[in-house]
Structures are given as structure tokens and as C-alpha cells.
Write a structure and sequence with these properties.
Blueprint: E1 2-4, H1 7-18, E2 24-29, H2 35-47, E3 50-55, H3 65-70, H4 75-85, E4 89-91, H5 95-98, H6 117-120, H7 124-139, E5 143-147, H8 151-163, E6 171-175, H9 195-201, H10 203-214, E7 218-219, H11 221-233, E8 237-245, E9 254-255, E10 261-269, E11 272-279
The structure holds adenosine monophosphate.
Length: 282
């Protein structure tokens, strides 16, 4: 696996590959890699000629400096995981490579950035767009691979592709969430859970299944209330438990039986905040 730290170096390397018409697949990450991340690399490998992974802990998407400082950094293990997954090239920039000057761009994300993760983490999606915009400019991928685990983030990146001149040909691939055997969505934050908490954390997945199994046309408030209670009984402090239009992410309280839906949960187990989602309709 090639490892590049400097923008000019990766660009001149990739230019040679694009001139041979090779399809470049890109998997942006913040490191602390697990099987969820490597599933994206493998998917890209299966569809592209060259797979580029990046590891960059993006400061502009953290509204809480303590969260940024606490973010796990495991680069040696990440390199091994990427090699084992067959990644061709790792881009490992410093903050000064990505932001030679502070980014002042603002992205027209509409209500996508004010609901759910956007409302709990103000500025998070603007920061996410700043880094993905910059990474796309550098890597110039033909395809990007993102995890459904971060459903709202996938929608934001799709929007970024739609609204940014030059990005319109980037193909967006949403890869299903990789889960532990008990259903817990893999996440770098799971490292902060004890064994007992990890077992308990699967309640989020069970709650999503409950919502899927009990979905029926009409008022959704009762199933949402039961879902909330399930999480509280299991020791969670829910941030949100919601059902939304799968395309617009506007919350749906009364279902017409046809609109595609997604259930979204964010909940704290002690101080660890976990998120997960499930598409409820076929
Ligand atoms: P992160 O490093 O957390 O920013 O994530 C990098 C990419 O990996 C994002 O597209 C995530 O959605 C994706 N990802 C994280 N966890 C999982 C998972 N459990 N299954 C599939 N993709 C994931």
C-alpha cells in the first residue's frame, strides 16, 4: 500500500492513473478503523481500479474540543487493517495540508443540517462538507463509498456532490452498516464501552427492529414512545428516537403507508453517545 502525506505527491501519483482511465474509488475516514470501515474499502476494491483510503481527524466537524482530543488515534493498526483489506493507497494528511488557510466556505444544506445530528452537533455537517470538499478536490475520485451507519452524513455528502460544480460525476455508494454479532453497529466509540455496556448497547438495534416490525399506517407516536421507553429501561439517555422521511429526513408522525421511512436513534450510555438507523420500508 502506498502512503502519501503531501497533497502534491498524491495528486501527481493519481494523475498518472486517471490518464490511463482507471476508476478511482475513495473511502474517507477518521481512523480508528474497524470492520465497518474495511467493508467500504472492500466494496470499493470490487468496483474500482484503485482504492484510496484517507485517515484524517477533521477538527472542523467537532463542536466540542474535548471530543476532538478524546477521538481515538490508532494509525499503526489502521495501516495494517487497510493493507489487509486490500487498500491501494492511504492519504494521511496533516491539518495544514487540508486547511492551508481556514475554510470559510458555507454549504447550502437546507434543513438537512438542522435536524438530528445537525441539531445535536451544531456546525458538524458544515465541517464535514469542508473536509470532504477538500478531499474530493485533492483525490478527484470517480466513486465515493460511505457507510449507512451515518445515514444523515450520506445524505449531506450526496447534497455536496449535487451542489458543487465539478463533483457532479462522483458516484455515491452507500454501504450497509456492519454490526457486531449482537447487532450493535460497529463504531470507533464502542472502544469506550465496557463488556457489559457493549452487550447492553445492542438494545439500540433491537429497538430499531421493534420499530420496523410494528410500523403501520397512521399515528406513529405509540411505537415511538415504546421505543423510547425500551432504551430508558436499558439504561440509555436517548437524545432522539424518531421516524423520518428517508429522502428528506423530515420527521413523520403520521404515516401515509407509502412514504419511504428511516428510523433514527441517538442515545447516551453513560457518557458515550451512540447512533444507529434502519430503513423501515422496502
Ligand atoms: P468515520 O471514520 O467514523 O468518519 O467513518 C468513515 C466512514 O466509515 C463513514 O462513511 C462511516 O459511515 C463508515 N462507517 C463507520 N462505521 C460503520 C459501520 N459500522 N458500517 C459501515 N460503515 C461504517
Amino acid at each position: 500500500m502506498w502512503i502519501f502525506k503531501r497533497v502534491a505527491d498524491i495528486q501527481s501519483f493519481l494523475q498518472k492513473r486517471t490518464s490511463k482511465n482507471e476508476k478511482i474509488g475513495f473511502v474517507p475516514t477518521m481512523g480508528a478503523l474497524h470492520e465497518g470501515h474495511t467493508s467500504l474499502i472492500k466494496k470499493s476494491k470490487s468496483e474500482c481500479d484503485i482504492t484510496v483510503g484517507s485517515v484524517f481527524v477533521n477538527p472542523t466537524q467537532f463542536n466540542d474540543k474535548k471530543d476532538l482530543d478524546k477521538y481515538p488515534r490508532t494509525i499503526e493498526n489502521d495501516v495494517i487493517a487497510l493493507i489487509n483489506a486490500g487498500c491501494d493507497l492511504l492519504f494521511l494528511p496533516d491539518v495544514s495540508d487540508i486547511y492551508p488557510e481556514p475554510s470559510v466556505k458555507k454549504y447550502a444544506l437546507g434543513t438537512l443540517e438542522t435536524v438530528y445530528e445537525g441539531s445535536s452537533r451544531p456546525g458538524h455537517f458544515q465541517g464535514g462538507c469542508q473536509v470532504v470538499d477538500r478531499l474530493f478536490e485533492i483525490v478527484k475520485p470517480d466513486a465515493v463509498f460511505c457507510g449507512q451507519k451515518d445515514y444523515q452524513q450520506c445524505m449531506v455528502i450526496s447534497r455536496l456532490i449535487d451542489i458543487t460544480p465539478g463533483f457532479e460525476n462522483i458516484e455515491m455508494n452507500i454501504v450497509p452498516t456492519t454490526r457486531e454479532e449482537n447487532g450493535l453497529a460497529m463504531s470507533s466509540r464502542n472502544m469506550r464501552l465496557s463488556d457489559g455496556q457493549r452487550a447492553n448497547a445492542a438494545t439500540i438495534y433491537q429497538t430499531l427492529i421493534y420499530l420496523k416490525e410494528h410500523l403501520a399506517q397512521g399515528d406513529l407516536s405509540n411505537i415511538l414512545k415504546s421505543a423510547y421507553e425500551k432504551l430508558v429501561e436499558a439504561g440509555f439517555k436517548p437524545d432522539y428516537v424518531s421516524i423520518a422521511d428517508a429522502k428528506t429526513l423530515q420527521s413523520v408522525e403520521n404515516w401515509d403507508g407509502g412514504t419511504p421511512l428511516v428510523a433514527l436513534i441517538a442515545a447516551f450510555l453513560e457518557e458515550v453517545r451512540l447512533i444507529d438507523n434502519m430503513v423501515l420500508t422496502d
